[in-house]
Amino acid sequence: MTTDSLSNLMDERRTFAPESGFAAAANVDAGWYAAADADREGFWAAQARRLSWASEWSNVLDWSDAPVAKWFVGGKLNVAYNCVDRHVEAGHGDRVAIQWEGESGDARAITYADLRREVSKTANALASLGLRAGDRVAIQLPMIPEAIFAMLACARLGLVHSVVFGGFSPTALRSRVDDAQARLLITSDGQFRRGKAAPMKANTDEAVADCASIEHVLVVRRTGSTVEWTEGRDLWWHDLVDGQSDTHEPEAFDAEHPLFILYTSGTTGNPKGILHTSGGYLTQVAYTHHAVFDLKPESDVYWCTADIGWVTGHSYIVYGPLANGATQVVYEGTPDSPHQGRHFEIIQKYGVTIYYTAPTLIRTFMKWGDEIPAGYDLSSLRLLGSVGEPINPEAWIWYRKHIGGDRCPIVDTWWQTETGAIMISPLPGVTSTKPGSAQRPLPGIGARVVDDAGVEVGPGGGGYLVLDKPWPSMLRGIWGDEERFRETYWSRFADEGFYFAGDGAKYDADGDIWLLGRVDDVMNVSGHRISTTEVESALVSHPSVAEAAVVGAADPTTGQGIVAFVILRGGQDASVVGVLRDHVAKEIGPIAKPRQVLVVPELPKTRSGKIMRRLLRDIAENRAVGDTTTLADSSVMALISSGLNTAS
Ligand code: WTA
C-alpha cells in the first residue's frame, strides 16, 4: 500500500455502533469472547457440535506434534453428509440450497433434496471410475452447479479435491495436477465470459497431454462448442453421471482425513499446495459463517461473489453455507455482463439479504457510478461483507451508503487460504465498526501484532500479524513439502511458536487491528495472490528477456497492479513490451498480466546481488526514489529514471 493510503487508514476515526434491532436478534453476543477465553477447547467443542458426527472425538486438540495440529481427535464424520443429507433428514429438503444464475440469465433452483440426488449420482460416478478415499481429483470448471456437485462428491468419498481457478493457464494447471498426482480431472467444454463462449477443454487438454497420473478427464457440457476427444480417457459428464443411482450411502472419515488441496502463491518457487482436513475445517467455516454473517437459514438469501477456484469460494460458497443449510445465490458470470447493474439486478431479483464481496469490486462499482445501484431495489440487504485485501475507508463508506442504505453492518473479514476460515472480523450486532479495520480476532482465535523480536507492540504500534494459538481450520501442511511448511510459516517466530501470516498490521489506540498489506514479495491484485518471483520467471522464460524484476504498485481499483522492469537481450527494443505482457498471461493466466512493462538498462541491486524492489516501487508509484546507499552502484537509479523519461 502507498504511504498516502496508509496514513488515510490511520486517520480514520468514524465508528458505527450496531443498530439495536440487529443486535437484539444477532446470532452472537459479546459474551462469546469471554466464554472462549475462559475455556478455548470447550468453546471449540461446542462449535463442533454444530455438525453431525458419526463418532465423537476423544480430545479436542492434540498439539503435541506442532505445528501440525490434530483437532477432534478420533472423531469421525462425512463432510458431504453434513452439507447436504442432514438438512433433508431434518425436513428441509424443499429449501433452495443453490439459486444458480447463468451469465445469460438462465437460472436453476436446486433444493437440498435435489442437491442430495446430484451429489449422490456424482459420487456413484466417481466411485465407478475406481477412485478410492485419499486419491486426488483436479477440478477446473466455471461457476456452474456441477462444480459444487463435484467438490461435494469428492468429500463424500474421501477423495481430495484440488480446484484450479478457471483463469489459470495450461502450464499452471499442469504443475498443480502433477504436484498432487491427480488421477481425474473434471472440466467443461467451455465457459461463458462476457456473452461469449470461451474454450476450456482445449486448455485442459494441453495441460494434461503429458500428465502421467491422469487416467480420465470428465467433461461437463456447458457451451456446446466442439471439442477434441481422446477416446478411453475423456468421458462426458452426462454419459457417466446422469444414469447413476441417485442414492449413495456416505461413509464416515476421520476428522483429520484430507479434504482438499488449494494452491496459492508463495514468495519463492512453485505455488504451495495448502492442505486442509475435515472436522476442524468444517467446524470453523460453519461457526464463522453463522457468527460473522449472522445467517438465519430460514429467511436469509446469502450471496458470496467469489469464484470456487479461490479459498473464499471453498469456505463461503461450498462448505460454510451448505453446512449451515443456507439458501444462496451462485452467479456464473462477470459483474458487467450484460450490463454494469448485473449484481444489483440479482440482489433485487432474489431478495439477497447478505452480500459478501471484495474491495476491488466495490471500487469498480464506485467508478461505474452511484446511479447504477440507485436504479435497483436493494432494500432486502441486511449485512455486507468484504474480503481479500485491506478495504480503504472511502470504499467502505461508499459500500455502506450506496449498497447498504446506511443501515447494513459491514464485516471486514481478514483470513487466508492457509487459515481456511475467517480469523479477524467485527461481529455484527456486537462490534462498533470502523471503516478500514478488521478489528478483533473472533472468539476462539488468538492473533496479535508483534515487532521483529516477537514482542507484542502497544496501542498505536505497528509490526507483523501473528496467530498465537492453533485454530481448527488451520492448514495441516504444504502438500508433499513439510520442510517448506515449517520454514514459511513457523520459522520466523519459532521461539514464540507463532504462525507468521506475512501481513503487516497495526493497533489503534483502542487496540483494534488494522491490516496493512503483505510484508513479503506476494502481490495482491484484485484480491488475488500473485508472487513477484512467479511473474519474473514467466518473463525470463521469454527469449527476449535477459533479466526481470517485478513489483506491486498501488492501483486505485485493483489494490495493486503488476509493474515489471525488464532488461532486454541484445537486438531487442521496447516494441516487444506487448508481447511480454501477453507471454505472462499465457504462462500463468490473465490475472498475472503486468499492468506495465518498463524496459530498463540496469536493475538496482545490493552488493550481494539482491534486487531492491523498494526503489523500483518508488518509480512505479511516481515517487522520489528513497535511500540508495546500500546499492552496489548508486548511479543505477539515475540511469533507470533517465531512460524512462525519454521513453515516455
Ligand atoms: C489479504 C483470501 C486486509 C492478506 C481470503 C492475506 C486481507 C491475503 C483481508 C490472503 C482483509 C485478505 N484485510 N487484507 N479483510 N483479507 N487479505 O490466501 O494480505 O487469497 O494475507 O485468502 O489477502 O489471500 P488469500
UniProtKB/TrEMBL annotation:
PROSITE patterns to which the protein is assigned, alphabetical: AMP_BINDING (PS00455)
Domain of life according to the entry: Bacteria
Name of the protein: Acetyl-coenzyme A synthetase
UniProt PTM comment: Acetylated. Deacetylation by the SIR2-homolog deacetylase activates the enzyme.
Pfam annotation, one family: AMP-binding
Similarity annotation: Belongs to the ATP-dependent AMP-binding enzyme family.
Gene: acsA
Free-text function comment from the UniProt entry: Catalyzes the conversion of acetate into acetyl-CoA (AcCoA), an essential intermediate at the junction of anabolic and catabolic pathways. AcsA undergoes a two-step reaction. In the first half reaction, AcsA combines acetate with ATP to form acetyl-adenylate (AcAMP) intermediate. In the second half reaction, it can then transfer the acetyl group from AcAMP to the sulfhydryl group of CoA, forming the product AcCoA.
Keywords of this entry: Acetylation, ATP-binding, Ligase, Magnesium, Metal-binding, Nucleotide-binding
Catalysed reactions listed for this entry: acetate + ATP + CoA = acetyl-CoA + AMP + diphosphate
Binding residue positions for CoA: R193, R194, G195, K196, T312, S526
Keyword Ribosomal protein assigned: no
GO molecular function: acetate-CoA ligase activity; AMP binding; ATP binding; metal ion binding
InterPro entries on file: Ac_CoA_lig, ACAS_N, AMP-bd_C, AMP-bd_C_sf, AMP-binding_CS, AMP-dep_synth/lig_dom, ANL_N_sf
GO cellular component: cytosol
E.C. designation(s): 6.2.1.1
Residue ranges annotated for the Acetyl-coenzyme A synthetase N-terminal domain, each copy included: 32-83
Sites where the protein binds ATP: G388, E389, P390, D412, T413, W414, W415, Q416, T417, D503, R518, R529
Start and end residues of each AMP-binding enzyme C-terminal domain: 534-610
Residues in the signal sequence: none
Domain AMP-dependent synthetase/ligase: 90-479
